[in-house]
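Exercise 7. Given the components listed, write out the predicted structure of the assembled complex. Treat all entries as one system.
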Amino acid sequence: MRKLNKDVIYGIYSDEEILLHAVRDARNRHLEIMDVYSPFPVHGLDQALGLSESRLHQAGFVYGTIGALIGFLGMTWMMTCDWPIIFGGKPYWPVPSFIPIVFEMTVLFSAWGMTITFYTICGLWPGVENPQLDLRTTDDKFCIAFDRNEVPDEAARRFFADSGADEVNYKNI
Amino acid sequence: MSGGIVAPVRRPLVEGQKTYHQITEDLCAPTERTPSTAWVLAFILAASTMAFGVFCVLWTIWMGIGTWNLNRTIGWGYDITNFVWWIGIGHAGTLISAILMLFRQRWRTGVNRAAEAMTIFAVICAAIFPLIHVGRIWVVFYFFPYPNTRGALWPNFNSPLLWDVFAISTYFSVSLLFWYTGLVPDFATVRNRAKGLRKKIYNSLSFGWTGSAKHWQRWESLSLVLAGLSTPLVLSVHTIVSFDFATSVIPGWHTTIFPPYFVAGAIFSGFAMVQTLMVLTRKILKLEEYITIEHIESMNKVILVTGTIVGVAYLTELFIAWYSGYVYEQFAFFNRAMGVYWWSYFGMMACNVISPQLFWVRKFRRSVFVTFFMSIFVNIGMWFERFVIIATTLARDYLPSSWSYYRPTWVEIGIFVGTIGLFFTLYLIFVRVAPVVAIAEVKHILKVGGDQFIGDKAHAQKSHEHHAVHHHEHH
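Answer.
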């Protein structure tokens, strides 16, 4: 188990609408949220938390471009420089014939590149044991967590009571 | 909130007034309980069939392609028929998971996981055929352009057969990524209910997923882009498969209609296979409240549309053959319908064009019984279609002196039946190991698809709407 060595106070909510209100409320109170855990992607949660938009798709574009270039330039080099062969009277550089493979290479590089990037930046990989605050957050509960060094317990408890949390817990992760 | 506005005509997609916890319980249960007798018997049957297929594949590799009934005229028989059939079946999974995701069709959540699994297993079955039909499987890596000591002699990038190598391998690996990325959060759900070794295994499978907000945001971004990439990818795969035929100069193959016609046929046959699996899965795993009649009806509508497109394509082919004034083309189509293989053409027309028209009737679309038999018909019909295109055409080529007749040997039949065994073996393992319905995605649509929120059984629907409107004004 990876240890972050953080003292955490967290509240458990049972509905995503209550959670969203709570997140907005916490931001209005200038309480710095450490993280929010949910069993499914909650629509609008990233805006409510003020998370910047993911740039994963931009990475995907770059990977795709690399794949397309490798495919196109690779085939060009093989068929015009390294070993030119005439196939059925076609030119040495049959660009229209390259389209399918260039397309497949674009998709292949983009998909693999993005997926590997995703797991790497999220710290997810086979065998990794990331610390979990509450096992029920993959079932039916939603959780807002504060770092106790950043947010005083008193303010956190008042916030949880006001925003409709079902329970409040402490944990060192 | 979690899904926006729902039109009042929408029917519930999750029945039984489910709570989030109940969804977890219901969908994790099949992986947690001891396998039922039905599962064990099905697994024994599937695994033995697969074992026979493995034997036939090894027999082919050991003895050579001479164990098949291919001859100088008919170079493609059962092998490529089965290859195209399986690849086509795979297409429905990607259509459901990627194209319906881009179109925001919420009903995909009930069936996308199983359909994507079906895609992967179907592509595995398909890939066996080109690998063994090249004859020397031990040098099959010659397909790939790697720096080699043969000069370096590269493959022919003009050839659609090589495009196919790239298309199928890309399709397989990208489908696998898409499917697995969807599974990761659900494996975490299973992990958090497990203990001991099982917990360790599922933690590994879930990559240590926690459900953090930033991870979900990236996960959604990744899913959306993978869907966007898979959509043209799936269309390209069967297009390129059709190029294997369309770029040749064989009458009956050399037609520009092939790419769209093959793609429509692929989706058609794939949805039929999804129906076969879903009808059995929902019954045996007791998932009728998640894979509802609404889901079955939606898929039957797709079968009706694509079946009709396929029918139009058949008629277009006939018309163009006549209109072209080209005697070889005309003969090819006359021969398909009236020649020695007339029965396969008849089977194709009856199963693919005529029988799906039953689905214009709502009662039939919503009948599990009719759906199951129709799905079998369509599977058979689409197999006949490929057989008609390949064997019938090759059996009667330009030179009457080389005309021939083709019937498979026991080895060819054994390999085909073996791939069906392999397919069901993999599927049966899948339903034991992974949640068959995407847990997180069903929870995500519960508030807009649950029968306590929409439909006839919805309680407090008015107050819910009122709340939503009020909430909207508030912001």
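Discussion: The first strand of chain A starts at residue 7 and ends at 13. The two ends of chain A are 10 Å apart (CA to CA).
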